[in-house]
Design brief:
about 550 residues, alpha+beta, three-stranded antiparallel sheet
């Protein structure tokens, strides 16, 4: 054997041995390119900005169209907005008092004073917190959340306007469509100051946002004029750190600069389901309107001739027009009931009601479950169909869904509400409405310790108020919870609860009314109080007295 043959044999054998040890296929089926399941599935890898920005406008336009015209999507967005933020969202100030060398009593007093001042600014009847004077703070936040969900992002600019009120801080919501690269520049273009711009977001050399480029007018606004081709540069914050612009969106990938609609994953199926739903409805309506059809033995040409306009000597006979005119003037009735007299060779046949399809309810439920999963809601919440829900399943659904809603509330409020509240707090300290240890200038020293908030929205709700209240009382007595947590779970402020109890006590003393006595365990009808909730649900469905 020659020298080259020995080399070829060696490497060839090594290749065969490696093939034998490693196998003839890839370690992961997901990496296969020749299988029936994976062969035609070849998505590309792209930068997150490339994935989003190239088709952002089309996705948003479709998402808004679904929100406008699809009742399921519109209702789902309403459910999320009213549950996650609601109309009266408020901050609970939680200063890091230990880091400031202060006591818990000081923190409670300071938080109470700050929350009272915030409430005056946010919910006064003049709506001075809104640049456009349209909404109170809760309304601004709810509108922003709708942008967050449908568009994938929410934007706002923070101004200082002198309107004769105590505070000058005011918020203007910005449609995300107006956030764009100035003069139609391509993404990652360099500006004169050396910063890059991506999707209207100006980035420094570290990739951190420093400013936002906003069209003066919406590109589709009627008679926008030159405003649609002029941009305003708004910095993220002042040199002192006061927020000037808010851009809230949820990141799905690192280096992502713009948000994407939360409806994007279900949009295709939603549209297909919408078309099928409309087709079933139209077919059912057609069946309802057209109850009969006429069968005729006449050829098509003869029928066409019968329906042709009459005129001339050839039509002087007993033509269709004369027959119809005769029948209109000489109707046949039997005991007051009209009898339709058909033409020769005709007979009436009833249409069979074949719509909606027998599989339609099951298909509709499957489609709604898919949409509900994308919404982070349960099927009964989205469809408003609670027919098959008992206590156990309702409680399970509520617990699972509630965690997701609280997660979304935290992400959204920290991204959108916290910067706005911090800008307001800076002004409140500067004008002396909220005191800071050491004077107003110490606000900048303790800013990070003071600007900590938990945003309180609507409560979770209750499935069985009696049993859940008893469980809450047990946890309070055992020290596993406190009034603040229990009140927050119901969307209440513990201070307002305690103040209300104190006022109630004074009024009872004034009018000589005894204090209410807690109900004794086991009082009332046993079947209503002690029986299993699922058994009670079954009894109520059977029509028995609950």
């Amino acid at each position: 054997m020659s020298f080259m043959s020995r080399i070829s044999s060696f490497f060839g054998g090594a290749s065969q041995r490696a093939h034998a040890f490693g196998g003839g296929s890839r370690a992961y089926d997901a990496g296969s390119y020749d299988s029936r399941e994976m062969g035609e599935w070849n998505p590309g890898i792209n930068h997150p900005d490339g994935e989003i920005n190239m088709t952002r406008d089309r996705i948003v336009a479709r998402a808004r169209d679904l929100d406008r015209n699809n009742p399921i999507i519109s209702g789902g967005v309403d459910r999320r907005a009213e549950t996650v933020v609601g109309a009266r969202i408020r901050p609970e100030f939680q200063p890091a008092f230990e880091a400031m060398g202060r006591t818990a009593d000081w923190a409670d007093d300071w938080a109470t004073a700050a929350e009272n001042e915030f409430h005056i600014w946010a919910y006064n009847s003049r709506k001075i917190c809104d640049v456009e004077r349209h909404s109170q703070f809760g309304g601004l936040v709810e509108t922003a959340y709708r942008h967050w969900w449908v568009d994938g992002e929410a934007c706002a600019a923070i101004y200082q306007l002198d309107r004769g009120g105590t505070y000058q801080t005011a918020v203007k919501l910005i449609d995300p469509d107006r956030l764009s690269n100035p003069d139609g520049m391509a993404d990652n273009s360099l500006l004169a100051n050396g910063n890059r711009v991506v999707g209207g977001v100006e980035l420094d050399r570290h990739g951190a946002p420093v400013a936002y480029h906003i069209r003066v007018k919406h590109p589709a606004e009627m008679q926008a004029g030159e405003g649609a081709f002029r941009w305003e540069r708004i910095v993220l914050e002042t040199k002192m750190g006061r927020p000037q612009f808010v851009h809230a969106y949820q990141r799905k990938r690192a280096e992502q600069r713009r948000g994407v609609s939360k409806l994007v994953s279900s949009m295709k199926k939603t549209k297909m389901f919408d078309r099928y739903d409309n087709a079933e409805l139209e077919a059912a309506l057609l069946n309802a309107i057209n109850a009969f059809f006429i069968e005729s033995a006449a050829p098509t040409a003869d029928v066409a001739q019968m329906f042709a306009p009459t005129g001339g000597d050839q039509d002087r006979g007993w033509n269709l027009e004369k027959q119809l005119d005769y029948r209109r003037k000489n109707r046949i009735k039997v005991s007051g009931t009209q009898v339709i007299h058909g033409l020769p060779g005709e007979k009436f046949s009833p249409l069979k009601a074949e719509r909606p399809s027998a599989n339609y309810p099951e298909f509709q439920a499957t489609g709604l479950r898919s949409i509900a999963a994308a919404f982070g809601l349960s099927y009964p919440q989205l469809s408003q169909n609670w027919a098959d829900i008992n206590y156990s399943s309702a409680r399970t659904l509520l617990n699972e869904i509630w965690r997701g809603l609280l997660h979304d509330r935290w992400l959204f409020t920290q991204a959108f509400c916290t910067p706005i509240c911090s800008a307001w707090l800076e002004e409140a300290v500067a004008i002396g409405k909220v005191k800071v240890p050491g004077g107003a200038l110490n606000f900048y020293r303790w800013r990070d310790a003071l600007c900590l908030y938990e945003w309180m929205g609507p409560g979770r709700g209750s499935i069985d108020p009696k049993k859940e209240s008893e469980a809450s009382d047990l946890d309070l007595a055992a020290g596993r919870t406190n009034l603040a947590l229990e009140a927050a779970d119901r969307g209440l402020d513990r201070r307002q609860v305690l103040m209300g109890l104190a006022r109630d006590r004074k009024l009872r003393e004034k009018f000589g009314i005894a204090e209410p006595v807690p109900p004794q365990k086991g009082a009332g009808r046993p079947s209503g109080d002690d029986e299993d909730n699922d058994a009670r649900d079954a009894r109520e469905r059977a029509g028995e007295d609950a």
